[in-house]
Amino acid sequence: MEFDTIAAISTPPGEGAIAIVRLSGDEAISIAERVFQAPGQKKLSTVPSHTIHYGHLIEPSSGRVAEEVMVSLMKGPKTFTREDVVEINCHGGITAVNRVLQIVLNEGARLAEPGEFTKRAFLNGRIDLSQAEAVMDLIRAKTDKAMNVALNQVEGRLSKLINRLRQEILETLAHVEVNIDYPEYDDVEEMTHRVLLEKSQFVQQEIDGLLRTAEQGKILREGLSTVIIGRPNVGKSSLLNALVQENKAIVTDIPGTTRDVIEEYVNVRGVPLRLVDTAGIRETEDIVERIGVERSRKVLKEADLILLVLNYSDELTPEDEKLFEAAAGMDVIVIVNKTDLEPKIDMDRVAQLAGKSRLVTTSLLEEQGITELEEAIAGLFFSGAVGAQDMTYVSNSRHIALLNQANRSISDAISGVESGVPIDIVQIDLTRTWELLGEIIGESVHESLIDQLFSQFCLGK
Amino acid sequence: MNYYEAGEYEVVVIGAGHAGVEAGLASARTGAKTLMITINLDMIAYMPCNPSVGGPAKGIVVREIDALGGEMAKNIDKTHIQMRMLNTGKGPAVRALRAQADKVLYQQEMKKTIENEPNLTLIQGMAERFIVEDGECRGIVTQTGAIYRSKAVVVTTGTFMRGEIILGDLKYSSGPNNQQPAVKLSEHLEELGFELVRFKTGTPPRVNSNTIDYSKTEIQPGDDVPRAFSYETKEFIMDQLPCWLTYTNEETHTIIGDNLHRSPMYSGVIKGRGPRYCPSIEDKVVRFNDKPRHQIFLEPEGRNTEEVYVQGFSTSLPEDVQYRMLRTIPGLEKAQLMRAGYAIEYDAMVPTQLWPTLETKRIKNLYTAGQINGTSGYEEAAGQGLMAGMNAACRVLGKEEVVLSRSDAYIGVMIDDLVTKGTNEPYRLLTSRAEYRLLLRHDNADLRLTDIGHRLGMISDERYAAFTAKKEAIAMEIDRLKATIIKPDETTQAVIREAGGSELKDGIRGADLLRRPEMTYDAIKQLIPSPEALGEDVEEQVEIQIKYEGYIEKSLQQVDRMKKMENKKIPVDIDYDAISGIANEARTNLKEVQPLSIAQASRISGVNPADISILLIYIEQGRVARTASE
What we know:
The complex is a heterodimer of chains A (461) and B (630).
Chain A: E1 6-9, E2 18-24, H1 28-35, E3 36-37, E4 51-58, E5 65-74, E6 85-91, H2 94-106, E7 110-111, H3 116-123, H4 132-154, H5 157-181, H6 193-216, E8 224-230, H7 236-247, E9 250-252, E10 263-268, E11 271-276, H8 278-284, H9 287-302, E12 305-311, H10 318-326, E13 332-337, H11 347-354, E14 358-361, H12 370-382, H13 397-418, H14 423-440, H15 447-456
Helix pairs in contact in A: 2-13, 3-4, 5-6, 5-14, 5-15, 6-13, 13-14
Chain B: E1 4-8, E2 11-14, H1 18-30, E3 34-38, E4 52-54, H2 58-67, H3 72-79, E5 80-86, E6 96-101, H4 103-115, E7 120-124, E8 127-133, E9 136-142, E10 146-149, E11 152-155, E12 164-167, E13 170-173, H5 184-191, E14 196-203, E15 206-208, E16 218-220, E17 243-247, H6 250-258, H7 264-267, H8 281-287, E18 295-300, E19 307-311, H9 319-326, E20 337-339, E21 342-349, E22 366-368, H10 378-397, H11 410-421, H12 445-455, H13 461-483, E23 485-486, H14 490-499, E24 508-509, H15 510-515, H16 521-527, H17 536-547, H18 549-566, H19 584-593, H20 598-602, H21 609-620
Parallel strand pairs in B: 1-10, 2-3, 2-11, 3-7, 11-22
Antiparallel strand pairs in B: 4-6, 5-6, 8-9, 9-10, 12-13, 12-21, 14-21, 15-19, 15-20, 16-17, 17-18, 18-19, 23-24
Helix pairs in contact in B: 1-10, 2-10, 2-12, 3-4, 6-9, 12-13, 13-17
């Protein structure tokens, strides 16, 4: 849609003391008002334009305070886009700003396309004509890029799942339609409230499942869960330090947990990693020894990525082989460290054990091979190799927002069915769910319903 | 050929089928001096296929035609043999009325109306050419040399253009039911540069009622309550004739299977594209070969005939096969075939050559409507005929033309689909084509469209006054129910218990109680009666508008969002070649369709959001390159 309210993070990703989420459009102020709580019950809709306000962002569903924020409010036309604009300033860092974005998207804002704020400024006559060509190039280029991403996703797990879900809904819709358009055809069973309820609940469960993976936040929001394993003294600690130093870790101490699950976040070439059990590594240098075999297995099992470190100047031991066994079937990068020392390891055997896993040699002491390691991590991620297990890639804010909206639509459908609203009216919400899911994979064509109708049922005079 | 000047009119309508009659009447009623010319005066408003009017989506179109001041609703109200409200068990948005017509009576009644319409002249003749001067259509020339000059022409030739009937291996040039086809007109349209496509449709056999054993079939009676399409109808036909239901069986399917090689559909004789929603029986048997039986409805064609229409049995198999197939069906074992089913191929205009007013882009003041635009169905034809006739008259009289939007009417959905997306099969309206179905209901067609009909003079002042009063009564009653509190006394609890709901704990507003699924307006009325007696139509509106308020609101929000895009107009003479950055497929399609608004552009296939953005930028900057004016 061209004139709805859009939102995006307008500060560069990554570090920074503050981050800004910007909203633009007719509903910018009303959306912000719904999620903003200021001291003294101040209402954003009543404050003067071009003012800034301190307060908290709340999750409307739970009423919980999500972030401490400053909100600037600017009414059109004296704004960048000439529309109403709200800027929410929050603490820097991926997690906080993503949460803020997520909240406004859930309230009905749409994630802006690349360059869309500029485009609006342009359309509303804010930017002069000389910039026209440049903006258009931008739109074309970014859209092509977005399309490439979409194409990649077509083969991805998420779109497969969504396609399957949409097909399920489509068949239900076609069934309802055929009852309406051909009320006398008795070879088509009448869709009942009971069947519709079952179908809707199934759809909701699936959407819930997808949203759960989003909440577990395996990727962007929380990073790939990464575990470093290796015998004592192979250089795990140095590896950790190298990654952290290079990439400015954000150390978090998650409240209510024991300190053995302290985690550190690093961002390796755009791939967020959540380094698990770093305290363990720092203190005892040996995860297996310290937390016991069972626990370590569990930690390994939950990991998305395993960095297995070997010592170049030592022979392979049965312990090393056991580590390979423990990591079997997972995404592993094998790091042979200490290449500055004399070679004693049997590299052929290592290659054999590593199998399809990537193999990197480093000398962390001399800062050799770190670039290669980072490339290996990024490569693994962007080729889609990592995340083969439960990671449905619902990490993108736009996807999450659409899934949340779809979830609301299907909830409406369910409560409609439960309170006895006629099926053809409940169908409005079911159709909306189908459209919203379609937007995730960039498909929302009405004609397909009619095609489905005629391929699924035998109709006619 | 000796040509002669035969008269001057403001609008000429070619054809007097379902599109033609509405076009002629609408043009005359809007105030234009109108001529209607048809190949055969005995075939006015003829139904070459099924003897029925209405049904899902189509029935709502008939109501819309009535609200705009058209004739189809009134005519069927006077001439039906049976009427039924369909989908009564479902929500209000999909209820639809369907009537079985007395075909002959329907024609006679319509002819009488046309003959007596002031401002409208009806003659027999075959139009062969248009008079085109300076890119404008200024009249027609007939087969007999008559020249009728006019300021606008509406073409409603149905399936007559280069029509060919196909029955087994028999194939001959013909209009429907062996009428004279229009060959020259088709050729003339091609000469003028229009692109035509070949479509196909078909009809089932008719049998003699006296040879049917109805005891082997199931009766399908009409409703026993008075029903009417028109808001003005006050007299109801209660003496109704039933239809009958029977089924095909394995034996029928075996005969069809054994004779597929003789079917023109499968032997390749038929090349035109047929409609998916109206497949022949051989199509159904082939495509759904796991179905052991298909429904067959036996529908009388009128009160003064024994002919019965075998619905569900459309076929172009040879006559001898049709005989054998029919006689396998319970009740039809001894049936006498009166007319064989057949397929018909015909020329249709590619509808993207039209503006949303149904005027052709190529020639000014030339309009086309009905089956010639690639649709199928009497109601679809009538809806377009009405719009084309109205718009031709508006053009001539200098009034503003009327384009219905997708949220105004099913007619708007249909025309927008046709001119924006085109169609690759005969187009039929389905409820699923309408995205704002809840707004486009059977019951509120008058609320949606009477204003337009009245503005153009198609709706009398008297009717309009009654309509305005109804609208006010609805609004007042809704306000009253929203303001009145019902106390939880014993009377109230008893009414609620009887409806099967749970008792009240506190007082509740009338509107809120009505929103409960089990409650009806009738129940509320017992508790807080209206000070004045309200008509049933008012009560129905109040109930629907309150009960489904939340859903209606949701639809209206969608409409609002789309409106912003509808309001972004695209200049007619925009030069798409001068806009850099638009993808090639989008450019080709934009040039063909020439959308009038950004919203319409966004509905064209192959036009993606990036193209729309770029288009918007050009338009907003006022830097649109214009094509050299024609």
